[in-house]
Amino acid sequence: MLKYSPEKMKIMMIVGARPNFMKLAPVLERMKRYHDFLEPIIVHTGQHYDHNLSGQFFADLEISQPDIHLEVGSGSHAEQTAKIMIEFEKVINEHPPHLVVVVGDVNSTLACALVAAKCKILIAHIEAGLRCGDMAMPEEINRVLTDRISDYLFPSESSGYQNLINEGMGEESVFFVGNVMIDSLMTSMEKARESQILETHGLQAKNYILLTLHRPENVDDMKILKNILVSVETIAKKTPVVFACHPRTRLNIDKFGLTSYLAAPGIRILEPLGYLDFLKLESEAALVLTDSGGIQEETTVLNVPCLTLRTSTERPVTVTEGTNTLVGSFPERIAAETEKILRGHQKAGSIPKYWDGKAGERIAEAFLKIRKSLFEPETIKEGTRKIKTVRETLAAGG
After folding, report:
1. 244-266 pLDDT tens trace
2. Residues with catalytic roles
3. Residue 272 — very low, low, confident or very high, per pLDDT cuts 50/70/90?
4. Which residues contact 204 (CB under 8 A, 6 or more apart)?
5. Distances (CA, A) of 68 to 71, 206, 230
6. Residue 245 contacts residue 219 (beta carbons within 8 Å)
7. Which domains occur in the chain, in start order?
8. Burial class (CB in 10 A: 0-12, 13-18, 19+), 376
9. pLDDT > 90? residue 157
10. How many CB atoms are located within 10 Å of the residue 45 CB?
11. 326-374 pLDDT, tens per residue?
């Protein structure tokens, strides 16, 4: 059993997939300033287990190795979620925390939040309130359900804050803290500039297009995936395309018999990259084609044009204020918008509110407020059964 300090609030920080590492790194760093009061425990579910999708990020972001590793691996949404729930419940029972912190919208997020809720452990959701309005997306289901069962909600942009208020969340539980992904970006850019990834692959700055593709609605549908690859093949005849290919995407390309579309001389396939190498590649691109939410945010701050291969986004501020444009999977639209940008008609962007590199500090300060409510009984409202149960659990086994 982990040994806890009786004076500190025990906070289980859940990581599982690549974006989680970038989002938790700045929070963990800021928590070090309050080490007398806050005690983080890192739990890695193992949802992403490839070295470049997981292990390399711990090194690049200078995160300490996980205290607990569930090693659940891959599987269908149901299988993966169920495995995480089974293994995480064992952890909760053996090492009961005061607070479970989940981030983003991956299966690990919802699975661990469900377990914590049923065990009457307080839950904080970082990057809460994001909505694209498409409940056919697994990530949207994860976002909505996680927010409904979380006690503390930390939205990253103004639309997230407003969504939560509109959905009936009390203002006292919603902390508009800003975007922790941007904290990591700002902290890491100096190191990323030293990356030799361009030289390694013979690339010239601002003379290539970066492509990432992994969302199920794009890569699990053969027709949609083919449309996107047809667009990429056409674009690559004029401008080199660097495809940082997700392992699952590559499997589907092979399964659907679409590999011929990647054979064009202008297309270069790369294995998944570490964080610093990818930041370098992203920051020096003439344009980014992606379906990733995090990359929409990063390109906005880097002032790199971004075309998102979706018809909706849960991060609307990247469109209204940033450099992002939604183009769907329509070959003509993708080609036309790409050509427009390459001719110099780049969308002017600005930096959204609280995307200032200080979100991690705001979250750590919020944790201190939560600790006060737990450790100073006079601040706890009458009838807060969930908090009382946490204390009873800790007294019995913690």
Report:
1. 998 889 999 999 999 999 998 89
2. 214
3. confident
4. 198
5. 9, 42, 43
6. no
7. 9-179+355-397 (3.40.50.2000), 189-342 (3.40.50.2000)
8. exposed
9. yes
10. 29
11. 999 999 999 999 999 999 998 889 999 999 999 999 999 999 999 998 8
